[in-house]
Amino acid sequence: MSNGGSKRTRSERVAALELPPGRVSRTLGELRRGSTLLRVGLCVLTAFLLWVVMRGWAPPLGYREGYVPQREVVSRVAFRKPDQAATDAARQVARGRVRYVYEQNPETLEQLRSALRNQVQAVISAEKLSDVDPSLWREFEPPAAPDAVPPAEEVREQAFQEFRAAFSGPEVLEKFQSDLAEAFSSWERHGLLDQLPREHTDGNQDEIFVYPHGAPNERDVAKLSDVLLGDGAALKQSLLINLDSTVVAERSFAWLMPRLRELKSTLKIDLSATQRERELAAAQQPEVLVTYEAGSTLAKAAAPLTANDLDVLALEHQSYLASLTTLQHAVRSLAVLGTIGGLFVLIGYFVVKREKQLFHNLSRLGLLLGGVLLGVGAARMAAVDPYRAELLPVLFMCMTFAISYRQEIALLIAAGVSLLVALEIGSGIGGLLLLLGTSCTAILLLTRIRSRSKITKVAFVAALVAAALSLVQAALEGQPLSMDMLYLAARNAGWTLASGILMTGMLPYIESLFGVVTDISLLELGDVAHPLLQELVRRAPGTYNHSINVASIAEAAAEAIGANGLLVRVGAYFHDIGKMFKPGYFVENQGAEANRHESLVPAMSTLIIIAHIKDGADLARQHHLPQSIIDFIEQHHGTTLVEYFYNRARQNEGEHGNEVQESAFRYPGPKPQSREAAILMLADAAESASRVLIEPTPARIESLVREIAMKRLLDGQFDECGLTLRQLRTVENRLIKSLTAVYHARVKYPDQQRTA
């Protein structure tokens, strides 16, 4: 009988066969997803920022103070270096050429001219010398030599009449006043000094700046020879030139000279303005540069580099970088980006294969990438002389990742970051060995942190390794064993210890930021004085007793397969805290009371039983319990079936004809996501079931535990936790042993034996 279709040939059947997509197809399909593209884009952005932080386009200067080069260091390019000593000398010379600044107050000279006019008027108003006050005329007489004979009265009278005759005529006195002002004009403008002040020392000795009182910006240049009074020759010459009568000029000079001596100066030195002029002149003096030609020796072989040598090498390095072409910068940039990209691909492949949860958790992935970026950037800033502390941020970052993630990831990142830091600071293979060896030592030792002293002990061991590797690095680089090398080893050991101390103080904040729980926090949470546990004791003592028993047997089972037993124990303490809201609906809290579920339909009873999962998780979040503990609350029943009420509902189905949906009698899940959660699931179920055994013999306990484990296995509850069959068998054996020890046979006394 025909089936209505033509028979296909063999080639058609082969062509119609569709094989599952290959690895490349699956990868391309995964990359088309928006969430995957977001994470890949975040990695690409981090790689680009690392290239910027590392200055991947420019090779680093790999020298440090105290380093002993094995051969002469020569200049690759010609460059010039400022000669500070010569520059300072040139600037000092420039300061010495600066004119001192003085403030001129001509008021005293003007008063002196007015006083001279008044005295002259008083003298010429008398008819003869005898009518003049002798002391007044004596002021107009030139000083006589000590051994000179005083002139006769006739001579004095004749001199007086000659002086008086010079002022005969109308307005002669007014002309005298104007001529006197002309004679004083230069001094009134530039000032008068009896002698230079003691502050006027190393500056310009020929000229000065003078500005009128109250007008510092109206400066004028004056020669010192014009303002210094000296023996008065300049004053006398000016009077002889400007006054019509020689007699009047000489008599006026005789009157003025002693008063000018008493006046001393009309100029006041302005030291602040002078200092500003000196500094301005020094700043305008260009630097004195020393030229180094290409091939010049910058540092000698077998001689430790000094700070001055490093300055020269840094200038040469800057000049070398400036001489590089765009193509050369681009080639190095591609090489650095290729290195960063290769590390990202290597670590990313491991994460995708072994730690998918980390890749899919965007916040944790972002923290990981941000930590790498901060670690590399901080290492670059810390790797400067004289500190050379790049080990501190790298080690702190690696210890953070060792606590927050798996050791394998921390080791991979430590290798990648050590390579990038060694590349960005130019420390070579020796620096890479130091960073990687010290970081790996700390990561491998930092397994279980049950006390704060553990971090300090790890840092101490890592410090010893850092000191030893510092000496190894010196040997690899051909450095002589000296006190400088021992100091370098001690310094690196000190930075390692500092990272441990810093980590000890920052540990609570790291736990909060990365969402991890160390054994220290677990020990604090496991204290029975915790408010939630105390409330559980008060409201649901049976549940509390059950939780304590589960914690004990689950911890032993976890330790048997190398899981975190402490985490399981603390998780077991809190896994049933949701029951405290309706404790009477759970059998361990009912005692002699009637079972409340007898009056409820199975569906309602199931809702009440299942509700303790959500209630417990909400209560844990309200009291800020860590997510790892909340995971135990949500996962310890997985998506298992509430069998008792499901079976009752099936019985009622036969009576009433209502169809029962199995999904309505299952816990919401999720299934256990870790080995620890799977162990708690088994321990919880086994401990509860063991309580109802009439004769809890070892054989019955073993049969019960095997049955529960097989049900959970066949129900798919262990599909997402990574628990292997061998580990499951080990957990079963440990649970059997622990429950047998709890429910071991006891001696029955006569009054306890059954009667026939």
Tell me what the structure shows.
With 756 residues, this protein is mainly α. The protein is built from 31 helices and eight strands. The strands form three sheets. It has a four-stranded mixed beta sheet. It has a two-stranded antiparallel ribbon with strand order 1-8. A hairpin with a 7-residue loop joins β4 and β5 (220-223). It starts with 9 loop residues before the first helix and ends in a 14-residue tail after the last helix.
Summary?
The chain has 756 residues and is mainly alpha-helical. Helix content is 62%, strand content 4%.
User: Which shape, going by the Cα principal axes?
Assistant: elongated
Low-pLDDT ranges:
none
Helix-strand makeup class: mainly alpha
Given the structure, what is the number of helices?
Answer: 31
Strand-residue proportion: under 5%
Largest sheet features = 4 strands, mixed
The radius of gyration computed from the alpha-carbon positions, rounded to a whole number of angstroms, is 51 Å
Number of strands: 8
Overall mean pLDDT:
87
Strand order of the largest sheet: 5-4-3-6
- Determine the fraction of residues in helical runs and give it as a percent range: 55-70%
| N-C termini distance | 77 Å
Keywords, separated by commas or semicolons:
4-stranded mixed beta sheet, two-stranded antiparallel ribbon, mainly alpha, 31 helices, 756 residues, 8 strands
